[in-house]
Design brief:
Layout: E1 9-14, E2 17-23, E3 26-28, E4 31-34, E5 40-43, E6 48-54, H1 56-72, H2 77-90, E7 99-104, E8 109-112, E9 118-119, E10 126-128, H3 132-145, H4 150-164, E11 172-177
Antiparallel strand pairs: 1-2, 1-10, 2-11, 3-4, 5-6, 6-7, 7-8, 8-9
Length: 178
């Protein structure tokens, strides 16, 4: 799985409650170009949370394709993710896209990659991007040691990742499904 620099996306779940957040920093090489980008959004009638790491234009192409799959499969997250991953792996143009998606609904949290992977990480913790490992470690500790809500865990974990990863900042967008 490729490691994409320039972002941190984290999703945390407790039961049917799920939160996904991302930082706002966009870099071009080692230059900060934008501090307040929105890398997390709601899809399919606000029932699906999604975030991206990687090339922005590629991610928007994937969002469009994923939304079309969600429409085709009446919001079935797993089926839509598998269909997108198959297309992404086999289509000559899509295969060149350099991005990764994190998606979640009330039941599932997934990572979709260009290698054709649809991964469902343990504990419902999804973390992608260069700051992902920092945010994931913090979120796991907070999930196991506290009763904080998913949104509070995402916020605190993104703050920790922003303190450690030079490609992650403290401007966050956090979306929830309760």
């Amino acid at each position: 799985m490729s490691d994409f620099h320039g972002t941190t996306i984290l999703s945390v779940r407790r039961g049917s409650r799920v939160a996904m957040g991302g930082d706002g920093q966009v870099t071009l090489g080692n230059i900060v170009v934008k501090r307040g980008a929105r890398k997390v959004r709601r899809l399919y009638h606000d029932r699906i949370l999604s975030g991206f790491a990687g090339a922005t234009a590629d991610a928007f192409t994937l969002f469009e394709r994923f939304e079309a799959k969600l429409d085709k499969h009446q919001g079935n997250l797993m089926r839509s993710a598998v269909e997108l991953a198959k297309d992404w792996r086999t289509d000559r143009i899509l295969r060149r896209l350099e991005a990764m998606l994190a998606v979640a609904d009330r039941e599932n949290s997934l990572i979709i990659t260009g290698n054709g992977d649809v991964l469902e990480p343990e504990l419902g913790l999804v973390a992608i991007g260069s700051g992902g490992p920092y945010a994931q470690a913090a979120a796991r500790a907070l999930l196991e040691a506290t009763e904080l809500s998913p949104a509070e865990i995402v916020k605190k974990s993104l703050q920790i990742a922003g303190d450690l990863c030079i490609y992650t900042n403290q401007s966050h967008v956090i979306e929830t499904l309760d």
